[in-house]
Design a protein that fits this description.
This protein is mainly α. The chain has one domain. The protein has helices at 2-28, 35-57, 82-102, 135-161, 171-209, 216-244, and strands spanning 117-122, 125-129. Strand 1 (117-122) and strand 2 (125-129) form a beta hairpin. The longest helix is centred in the last third of the chain and has 39 residues, at 171-209. Residues 249-257 have low confidence and may be disordered.
């Protein structure tokens, strides 16, 4: 029974990845001025999370004679991959801070709000740089990311709270399946975060470093954001591997009591 559950959940997970790839391609080819390209990867992660959640919700308690079960407390943190989970958590926090910090922007030359960064250099003299990751981009992106985080919480809750499958002897295998599913959820959240983080960092760095009369702290911040972009892309590759090739290895044993 445990093997059938593994096959079913894997099939639904891959279905989510496939649907997400199609949705991501459609999104990337639509939208004005790069908006679709910016949300393509988050939509892929979101669809993957839906697939994982659907797989976990299909698990039902085994039927048959009356069974006994061990008294145990399963917690989400017991199944999350520590290293990947920590990196994704930090990256998610950085993305939310960056979105909040860059949301306020100026209209561009076509009057579109939040697409330009304007620096007043002297009396009557100003310099405008764009595109800027302001409200023109961050509104829809923030919605997709927040919905994805909510889906991740629901998926992890379903993974932890779903009933044990099979006999008592299958408990270790069952825990491996839970850890694998939690690993995939973490990877999907990482994809949800990584590409927008790289894109927003590069766009903001271009605006800050390209302003000729920028103050020193703009320049320092710009270089930090420029260095952040390849780190975010590397994390995205790590997370993609976690989604496509989930490992059975756990960072730590499951703790029960």
């Amino acid at each position: 029974m445990t093997r059938s559950i593994a096959r079913r959940t894997a099939a639904l997970r891959w279905a989510g990845v496939a649907v997400g790839a199609v949705v991501g391609v459609i999104a990337a080819r639509s939208g004005d001025l790069g908006v679709g390209l910016l949300v393509a990867a988050p939509l892929l992660g979101l669809c993957t999370l839906v697939g994982v959640l659907a797989g976990e919700l299909t698990v039902r308690p085994p039927r048959g004679p009356t069974r006994t079960a061990a008294v145990e407390v399963r917690r989400i943190r017991d199944y999350l991959p520590r290293r990947l989970g920590g990196v994704v958590g930090v990256a998610g926090g950085v993305l939310l801070i960056l979105l909040a910090a860059t949301t306020t922007g100026d209209p561009d030359d076509m009057g579109r709000p939040g697409r330009a960064l304007i620096r007043h250099c002297a009396a009557g003299l100003y310099e405008s740089r764009g595109p800027w990751p302001g409200s023109f981009y961050t509104g829809g992106l923030a919605v997709v990311v927040l919905v994805g985080l909510l889906m991740a919480c629901l998926a992890l809750r379903a993974i932890v709270r779903r009933p044990r499958s099979g006999s008592t002897g299958d408990a270790a295998v069952d825990d491996v399946l839970r850890r694998r599913a939690a690993h995939v959820v973490t990877g999907a959240v990482g994809i949800l975060v990584a590409i927008p983080l790289a894109g927003v960092s590069l766009t903001a760095a271009n605006g800050l470093l390209g302003t000729s009369c920028a103050p020193t702290w703009w320049t320092v911040t710009g270089w930090v954001l420029l260095a952040l972009a390849p780190a975010a892309l590397a994390m995205g590759a790590w997370c993609a591997a976690a989604v496509l090739l989930p490992t059975d290895r756990a960072d730590s044993p499951v703790r029960t009591r």
